[in-house]
From TrEMBL:
<dbReference type="InterPro" id="IPR008181">
    <property type="entry name" value="dUTPase"/>
</dbReference>
<dbReference type="InterPro" id="IPR029054">
    <property type="entry name" value="dUTPase-like"/>
</dbReference>
<feature type="compositionally biased region" description="Gly residues">
    <location>
        <begin position="143"/>
        <end position="155"/>
    </location>
</feature>
<keyword id="KW-0546">Nucleotide metabolism</keyword>
<dbReference type="InterPro" id="IPR033704">
    <property type="entry name" value="dUTPase_trimeric"/>
</dbReference>
<comment type="similarity">
    <text>Belongs to the dUTPase family.</text>
</comment>
<feature type="domain" description="dUTPase-like">
    <location>
        <begin position="22"/>
        <end position="154"/>
    </location>
</feature>
<dbReference type="GO" id="GO:0004170">
    <property type="term" value="F:dUTP diphosphatase activity"/>
</dbReference>
<keyword id="KW-0378">Hydrolase</keyword>
<dbReference type="Pfam" id="PF00692">
    <property type="entry name" value="dUTPase"/>
</dbReference>
<protein>
    <recommendedName>
        <fullName>dUTP diphosphatase</fullName>
        <ecNumber>3.6.1.23</ecNumber>
    </recommendedName>
</protein>
<dbReference type="InterPro" id="IPR036157">
    <property type="entry name" value="dUTPase-like_sf"/>
</dbReference>
<feature type="region of interest" description="Disordered">
    <location>
        <begin position="134"/>
        <end position="155"/>
    </location>
</feature>
Amino acid sequence: MEDLPSVGIRLLDERLTGWGFPRWGSAAAAGLDLHACLDAPLTLEPGAPAALIPAGFCVLIRDPAWCGLVFPRSGRGHRDGLILGNGTGVIDADYEGPLMISAWNRSDRPARIEPGERIAQLVFTRVTRPTLTVLDTDEPAGSGRGQGGFGSSGR
């Protein structure tokens, strides 16, 4: 485990510690719970534009071999239609600003978010940056796949 980076956390909202931050939901949980640092409940109407919700801290990864990925919490997404407005958030190693959660309601009924509620999760993962080689456009595909377009392998 010595190859794990040390990641700094700069708290911006003092309520986080009272809500139990930082913590993972269980001993085997991949995602660090992210809380909605709101001053009042927020209701997201169905299909309304995504709302940016402060997570109340800055994360300082700083090691370019690592990044953070922000995902919705499964239960709220399945049960209430609360998902991320950007699908998955990517936190680059050199980003040190406030962490924000883009929340969107895909359901047909309003979704209410309470202050302090856990609404997303942050997963840390390694980054691989391969060497990219620009190929001649006339060079045939080596595997033969892709000739039929998107979804062609599922015949």
